[in-house]
Amino acid sequence: MPDVYARDLDLNLLRVFAVVSETGSATEAAKRLYLTQPAVSAALRRLRVAIGAPLFISTGRGLALTARGARLRAGIDSHLGQLVASALDRPSFDPRTCERTVRLGLADSLETWLLPHLMRILDAEAPGIRIAVVPVQFRTIATELASRVEIALTVADPLPATIRRVSVLTGGFVCLYDPRHAKLRRTLTEAVYFAHDHVVVGYNGDLRGHVEDSLGKQRNVRCAVASFASVGALVDGTARLATVSSIAAASIRESRPHLRTKPLPFELPTGSADLLWPATTDDDEALRYLRDTIIALCKRLNR
Question: Quick one: CA dihedral 202, 118, 176, 170, positive or negative?
Answer without folding.
Answer: positive
